[in-house]
Design brief:
Layout (H helix, E strand, L loop, with lengths): L1 E4 L1 H13 L5 H20 L8 E6 L3 H15 L3 E6 L8 H15 L4 E4 L2 H8 L6 E5 L18 H15 L2 E5 L21 E5 L2 E2 L7 H5 L1 E5 L13 E3 L2 H6 L15 E5 L3 E2 L2 E2 L1 H13 L4 E5 L5 H7 L4 E3 L3 H10 L2 E4 L7 H11 L2 H4 L2 E4 L2 H8 L2 H6 L3 E4 L3 H8 L3 H6 L1 H12 L2 E4 L4 E4 L5 E4 L11 H14 L4 H19 L8 H6 L1 H9 L4
Parallel strand pairs: 1-8, 2-3, 2-5, 3-4, 5-6, 6-7, 7-9, 10-21, 11-14, 11-16, 14-15, 16-17, 17-18, 18-19
Antiparallel strand pairs: 1-10, 12-13, 19-20, 20-21
Helix pairs in contact: 2-3, 3-4, 9-19, 12-14, 14-16, 19-20, 20-22
């Protein structure tokens, strides 16, 4: 899994590379520029850049210095470059100043380069030029934003608007160096204006801001440039990005001579029926997801009046009733227990959840609480209830997490990683916070981020499906932290595969695509 760092973590790694490993700033900047040009060339799908035209808009810091190196290497590949300096030359320092001096020497040798000393000077010329790509080398990771959107002053706003206007008018590929200017590398908050990039070439490591708040909309495709800053400088990483390899590592295929009881025994306490409504669908989705993920044995506790419908929907599932003694007997048998999917919020259901959590047969097992079980926690004594459980995973969305934590939804959305991490640490639980990205947090572990999946998952019942996948993986031997992380990836991938039109995907379609997502990893034909 790749590290995902904050701006301050990246700055510490930069500093350590220079001071401890003696990798000079000039070397780092040269590598950054070379990598950017290589990636840009690949993205443009051109064998040669000869005759291509590029616009580089540069700030005064190291991001501008990267832009100068990019301009030089583009010239070396026989492209033409227009360079716009947003700040006076006398404000440049160190290696950044050196980069501009080299380009000025190129001009003396009649290279196809125009250097404009301000936005106003450049505007009449660049507005009439058709560029193959626009290079944003303005702010880099130095910008810091609060929760409130900030209005950027000139000349930053002029440079950003220049890029955005040309992109909108011509459709030229827009490439952000390290991250789009105007975006906070840590929080993902954006200023007004901010560069709208098609491609972000980030240095050394992914940044948390790419995946939070405005980051996903502004970054476009993300490529990591190798600039010789070794990974050990950011280890232990505070956050990691879940990938296909991690998901595969934490999925166990059945042994040839295995039996049902050795492939994971799942107990799901879900579904409800009252006078004017039924939530059997939540139970069906979670149980079906557990089966599709390979659980050997799934037992479902539902009101017995629903048993016939359940047997028709899922004949593989063993059905038991809702009396506490029967549930506790099966709890002793189970490898993992899932409580909450559509179990209801009436007084009887709330009492049942509380009683079960205080029972040793339940509390000593791997335990997953979702949906209505989370509601029960929020209206009862959460500290007392959580303290009873040995290994516990909570799977809230932002609204449910707000009720549990008493943190406003707006604050959670602003910093989901920090909020999830603090809650997990405070209560000694594993937390899967559903959202974009999905955040999996546990005390004293790197926080894991999942970005697989699209709006296909924004459908009723999607959370029930995810819980069933987690339950199956945990029953087959994974701890809840790894099971939750791998399940989040499989869940997202199944959403991708369910249909070519993400907006038309239902949760049932996601369940049906789980095996395709698994088969894709292990090269198993459907």
């Amino acid at each position: 899994m790749l590290p995902v760092v904050t701006a301050s973590e990246m700055q510490r790694a930069d500093k350590a590379a220079i001071e401890e490993l003696h990798i000079g700033e000039t070397r780092l900047m040269e590598l950054a520029g070379c990598e950017c040009v290589r990636i840009i060339k690949e993205r443009l799908q051109k064998d040669s850049l000869a005759g291509s035209s590029f616009l580089v808009v540069a700030g005064k810091g190291n991001n501008g210095g990267d832009g100068f190196v990019i301009a030089r290497h583009l010239l070396n590949l026989e492209a033409s470059v227009d360079l716009v300096l947003l700040y006076p030359k006398n404000m440049l320092q160190g290696v950044t100043q050196e980069g501009l001096t080299i380009l000025e020497a190129y001009m003396e040798n009649e290279a196809p380069l125009r250097i404009f000393l301000s936005h106003d000077e450049a505007l009449p010329f660049v507005a009439e030029t058709l560029f193959d790509a626009l290079i944003d080398a303005i702010t880099g990771t130095g910008l810091r934003l609060s929760h409130q959107q900030m209005e950027l002053a000139t000349p930053l706003s002029d440079g950003i608007e220049l890029i955005n206007n040309i992109r909108q008018r011509t459709g030229a590929l827009t490439v952000a160096v390290d991250l789009p200017s105007g975006l906070d590398a840590t929080t993902g908050f954006s200023a007004s204006p901010s560069v709208e990039a098609d491609l972000t070439v980030t240095m050394a490591f992914l940044k948390t801001g790419f995946y939070l708040n405005d980051g996903p909309e502004l970054c476009g495709e993300i490529e990591v440039a190798e600039i010789s800053i070794p990974r050990f400088l950011v280890e232990p990483s505070s956050s990691l990005l879940i990938d296909q390899e991690f998901a595969a590592e934490h999925f166990t295929l059945r042994e040839q001579r295995s039996a049902k009881h050795t492939n994971g025994k799942v107990l799901i306490i879900a579904g409800s029926q009252i006078t004017n409504s039924s939530m059997l669908g939540a139970a069906i989705l979670s149980a079906k997801a557990a089966l599709k993920t390979g659980a050997g044995y799934v037992c479902l506790s539902i009101p017995l009046a629903l048993a016939g419908a359940m047997h028709t929907a899922l004949p593989e599932v063993i059905v038991i009733g809702r009396d506490k003694a029967t549930i506790l007997e099966k709890a002793a048998w189970a490898d993992v227990i899932l409580i909450g999917c559509g179990i209801g919020r009436d007084q009887e259901s709330l009492d049942l959840v509380e009683e079960l959590l205080k029972s040793p047969e339940i509390a000593d097992k791997k335990l997953i609480l979702d949906a209505d079980a989370l509601y029960a926690l929020s209206v009862r004594d959460i500290t007392d209830m959580l303290s009873q459980c040995h290994e516990l995973l909570l799977t809230p969305h932002y609204g449910e997490f707000s009720r549990l934590s008493e943190i406003p939804v707006e604050s959670i959305a602003a910093d989901p990683i920090g909020c999830a991490r603090n809650f997990a640490r405070e209560h000694g639980v594993t937390l899967l916070l559903k959202g974009t990205p999905t955040v999996i947090a546990q005390s004293d572990c790197p926080t894991l981020l999942n970005t697989s999946g699209t709006e296909a998952l924004a459908s009723a019942g999607s959370g029930d499906v995810l819980s069933g996948i987690i339950a199956a993986l945990a029953a087959k031997g994974e701890d809840l932290f790894d099971a939750a992380a791998a399940a989040a990836w499989f869940h997202g991938r199944a959403g991708d595969l369910a249909s070519d039109v993400a907006s038309l995907v239902s949760s049932g379609m996601v369940v049906d695509a789980i095996q395709q997502a698994i088969g894709e990893i292990f090269n198993i034909e459907p």
